[in-house]
Amino acid sequence: MNREAPKEVRERLEHLKKTIEHHRYLYHVLDKPEISDEALDSLKNELVTIETRYPELLTPDSPSQRVAGEPLPEFVKIKHEIPQWSFNDAFTEEDITEFDARVKRFLNEKYGNVSPEYVCELKIDGLKIVLTYEKGFLITGATRGNGKVGEDVTLNVRTIGSVPLRLKEDVDVVVEGEAWIGSKELERINKERAKKKEPLFANPRNLVAGSIRQLDPKVVASRNLEFFAYDMARFSEKIPNEQIGELEELKKLGFRVNPNFELCRDVHDVILYWRKWQKKKDKESYWIDGVAVKVSKREYQDALGYTGKAPRFAIAFKFPPEQVTTVVEDIVFQVGRTGVITPVANLTPVSVAGTTVSRATLHNEDEINRLDVRIGDTVILQKAGDVIPDIVSVVKEMRDKNSKPYKFPTKVAACGDDGKIERIQGQAAWRCVNKNSFAQQKRKFYHFVSKHAFDIVHMGPKNIDLLLEHGLIANFDDIFTLKKGDLLGLPRFAEKSADKLLGSIEERKKISLPRFITSLSIPNVGEETAEDLALKFGTIENLEHAELPELENISGVGGVVAQSVLDWFAEKENKELVRKLLRHVHVLHETKKHGPAPFAGKRFVITGTLPTLSRDEAAQKIKDLGGDVSSAVSSNTDFVVAGEGPGSKYDKAKELGVEIIDEEELLRLLKKR
DNA sequence: TGTCCTCGAGTTCC
DNA sequence: CTCGAGGACA
What we know:
The chain is an alpha+beta fold.
């Protein structure tokens, strides 16, 4: 029994309906989508969820009641002799496991305990086309339409190079496949359209659908469409009894078949294939939105048959969407190590690109204004660089009439004291006026023990919080006077964990000068600058007494950084801190072994996950031989070392023609010298 | 002064 | 990874 829908839900439903209708109109009628298909899907999903929960709210005019793919009136309709089923969808590994169990249950009745093999093929994001051949000649080409009736697009299909007009054998056959367009071609066409001030295509599928449904075949021919065949029916010869055989047969007849299909022994292999392609999907020139999974044996396929709307022997195993919509529940503020205030949106948790996201940074005040994001807004969310959640835009149609622009606060409680904040002229960030807030202090501690500073392995943010809370540490040097007795009184701390923590502190009582400088949180001085300073001054005492001209003399250090260093050492407490730290810590003044430096002047950038080395290890090896490792690719970069799953740097390197090598090659270079 | 490059700082989830 | 800003160089 359902409760009656609350007012908020009814209102949200109305907003959803209007918004979806609006974007559907932009997409299908005006051919000018403003949001991605995935974002629109996400809104539709929410609509269906609400309607399922509260069936009394479902009305016939709801966008959820619209049948997709009705043929357009401009085209002659073709009745499909072979019904064109659509596949059911699986979105998660549980879904696919359940599908496998269902298949086995069904086959069990007839064949007993069998374990069917599956064929996995890439599901290309294009437009499904049905080709009918008689005696080897192409007779018609049709869109899928609603599955029973499609549009006759024969003239347009004939312009596609990879669709054979005549087969290699004089057979009758109906072939199904996907028409698609490569991303390069999409770019080319969009460039041309931009010149003519015509609206751009948002993605390849829009372009394919738009092209195939062109009334003028000449326009279609000017766009380089491609075609992959994947299924056959009504074959006048014998249809092979395995799905793979069918693909081979299609190749023999002269079709292009996507080469990345695989025969999987069981559902576990299917999942591995899916995971593999989820990572690799952006490397192909076509768009892939999932994996088509089919029971391989034709006999089993026939036994499984069809439900009312989809085959039981196959399923579309979709990749997680990379763009979804969600709601901004609140905007909160974080205080960084330097006192910078970062606004963060708390979101209704959603799954995007395979992980659940509940927070996203809003960067700064300007970004909030640019997006015009407000609390309660429905927003489009994606992952920037595959990791960091990023709010792309606000779905303004979903916004309440009474909502007002978000006003950046004048006070942030976490800044302590009266919470006052300031924004320095010409800078993007607001900062706490109070430089000693607890929040900021905490962040400095995180930095002090972090990997590139003191690297105290078992001292993470959790433990820092705990120690601060219990008043066991207040200054950095307190870390080195911790006693076992102090720790044992803390929750979650017993013999073992206490020993471990004290052990890792002990290990770091010897530290290199660059790391020591990095750990101090001197504004504008990071790892790289710390290295430069260490090289120039040799000891922390020399650095402490450095003067402005000396500092500015260093390449990479200008007025701002130099003053920043001077200001830091001018503070009495900071001098005191260094003095106290040196009581417990031995700073190694290693005389740099100036071995051979064959990589001198060579600049490297590392991206992705390397097979054996971590990125830091690889960087160290390069630096040992005199090479430079920088974080961004530019025309000055000599080599990009790319591993598994590289990001935008890989593309940038390609664009600039920078040499790309893998770990193996890097190691070879390192050895050779 | 303008442009390009590099570094610092902040970020999320598992 | 991305953004902003500091620094080098023409």
